[in-house]
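Weekly structure sync, notes
Attendees: PL, DS, HV (note-taker this week)

Item 1: Putative protease inhibitor
DS walked through the input record. Source organism listed as Escherichia coli. Sequence as pasted into the shared doc:
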Amino acid sequence: MMSIPYADNLKASKFAVQSYAALVLARQQKAPLGALREIWEHRADAASGLPLLQLGVALKTMGDATRGEEAIALALKTPRNSDERIWLGDYGSSLRDNALMLSLLEENKLLPDEQYTLLNTLSQQAFGERWLSTQESNALFLAARTIQDLPGKWQAQTSFSAEQLTGEKAQNSNLNSDQLVTLQVSNSGDQPLWLRMDASGYPQSAPLPANNVLQIERHILGTDGKSKSLDSLRSGDLVLVWLQVKASNSVPDALVVDLLPAGLELENQNLANGSASLEQSGGEVQNLLNQMQQASIKHIEFRDDRFVAAVAVDEYQPVTLVYLARAVTPGTYQVPQPMVESMYVPQWRATGAAEDLLIVRP
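Item 1 (cont.): predicted structure, written out as tokens:
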């Protein structure tokens, strides 16, 4: 009995589930060959090469080398559907699938030439993405773990050292800003050389607002629902923070994070004996609360340093979120920008506009 709650392509999702189950059972020599061949008859349902490869390995493991090799060859020719709006129910992506395919090929010592081609494709995909989902990060880890101990001597000449670098495994080097500016690396050997550079630092100014599919805006209000400035608060004052989230595509797994500046403290609305309540606010605030109640909010947290909410954002249907914060510590503080991202398509994200300084007086 198979239950797939929701997917835009049920046949593809069913084929993927059955192929993965076939691989798991085949590893224990408990996959009936007849059942594997029956799944193979539905190969046209595949929407990605990964389930075809899993089925191919299962077929070879259970003794049907002919169909297994056909499935593996077909897997390498079947790209994942690139339309991210088509939900397959597996939280996957082309990068995730290619990483798992590379890991599976090396694990079973299959097609070394195709592995190199797949590794080259995967490298370009990984470095082309700034944000990775948990599925993608896990798949890349599995692929790296599988291939990290493969033999292969390499040589490289760098601008920060007169001596030639050589080795059989990865090497790390820490560079300062001056070395980074003039960095040059050349492959002085006859083996492929893979280079990764990570830079860390603090920006001198707040990043500009940005949005991709998602959009977020923050408004600071008084408890009467009118706009309020953050540069004239006194210790003990309450402010209402109104977040509005929009999306140009449906995003069922949006994560909203609004970091608090050091001078503010959240009023936890989950506490029955809280010192302040949104329900006691004015009419304009009640309108916002009504809009918030209509949103598909899956989870809300009032943390020490941030407000967090998991929500489903429908296409062109704004989501309203509101919370109370109290000015507590006198001083002048930078105000972090609000952000929202899809938890499983992390490049769908947005950051809001930067606020003026928060000034809290005694």
